[in-house]
Structure formats: structure tokens, C-alpha cells
Design a protein that fits this description.
Order of helices and strands: HHEHHEEHHEEH
Pfam family, one: XH
Number of domains: 2
GO biological process, one term: gene silencing by siRNA-directed DNA methylation
Strand order of the largest sheet: 1-4-5
Largest sheet: 3 strands, antiparallel
Coiled coil: 4-77
Number of strands: 5
Keywords: Coiled coil
Strand content: 5-15%
Distance between the termini: 26 Å
Shape: elongated
Helix content: 55-70%
Domain Factor of DNA methylation 1-5/IDN2: 99-225
Length: 233
Amino acid sequence: MLELEKELHEKRELELEVTRLNGTLQVMKHLEGDDDGDIHDKMEKLSEKLEHERKRLEELSGELVRKERESNDELQEARKELIMGLEDILSGRTAIGIKRMGELDERPFQNACKRKYGNDDYETRAAELVSSWQEEIKKPAWHPYKFVKAEDGSDKEVVNDEDPRLKQLWIEYGDDVCNAVKTALSEVNEYNPSGRYVVSELWNFRKNRKATMKEVLRFIFQQMEVPGKRRRG
């Protein structure tokens, strides 16, 4: 990582140098018609230097892209290893834990079934409903998404609120159940759009986002500091 930071700094310096050389060359072009006979030779030398620096910048940029890709691959592998090693230790009851992306939250289903069917075996009905919709989410034939324009102008795929199945679910079971399905759909579309199965992720439950490696390691070290006592990160 230190080597990568060093090369990033070198790239920024090169970009500044190329910009400076290019600006100087443009000024000299305006002076080319003056009496200074040496100006043409200076421009040629400056053009050669500018071309050399541009090539260096191009090569360095390509090398940085390759190294950043390798670094990201290594980071993803490290996250996978941590998830496998910590899945039995971390949970949703801790500040840092494992969140199963694309897995339906059962609580809205239980609450909705209790309201709809009363106390008469509502848990079984809720479990069946969760299982049924979890299977629906996996089906590639169902594509309840649409494209919208993001703030940066790019196309972004989001859950389509007007999807007929989602609208029917909302009519039958209300906002919370429908939102739980939409959340799961968003997660599988982000983490595993081709397979559409549940993926484990290191999660910061306090901030409701993906946990950074620094946060995960800090939390683990905190647990190790006080033997026999679990602390919230």
C-alpha cells in the first residue's frame, strides 16, 4: 500500500509537470513569429520533453490501474476470509457483524401475519411466506428493476415500485413486508445479480453500511482486550 501511495504521488507530480509544460508550449507558440531565432529550437525541445512526460504518465497510469485492481482483489479475498472465520462469532447483536445480503427480514412478515390472521399459527404462516418470497427473489425470470439517472448522469438500476407482484404484495400485507422484499431485491442486485442468492457481508450495524476492514479489525481487537467479556464496538 505504501508503494501504491508513492506511485500515486508520482502520478500527480507528472500530471502537474505535463500541464506546466503544455502551458509553456502554448505561450511559446504565440511568440514564434517574433525575432527570437532561438524560439523554434526551444519549442522543439519542449515538445520532445512534453511527449516523453506524457508517455511516462501513460505507462504509470496503466501500472497503477493494474496494481489497484490487484490490491482490490486481495482486499476482497481478505474480507471473504474474515467472514468465514468470524461468522460464528459476529452477529447482528454487535455493532460490527455479518449481514446476509438478500436475506429477508422475518419480523415484518411475522407482524403482518399476526395482524392478518391473529395468534392462530401466525408464525408458521409467516415462515411459509418468507420462504416463498425468498424463492421468488432467486428467480432470474422475475426482474422487478428499472433504470434511472443517477446524480452523476450515469444509469442506475433500482427496484421498480410499479412491479405488479410488489404492488399485490403491498395490497395484501402492507408497507413493511413490501419494503423488506424491496430491500432484499436491492441487495441481491448489488451483491449477486447473476446468481441472486444470499451473500454474507461484514456490516456496520450502527451506521447501517458495509464495514471497513479497519472497523472490523478494531472491533476484533477490542474483544481480545477484555477476556471473557464481550464489548460493543
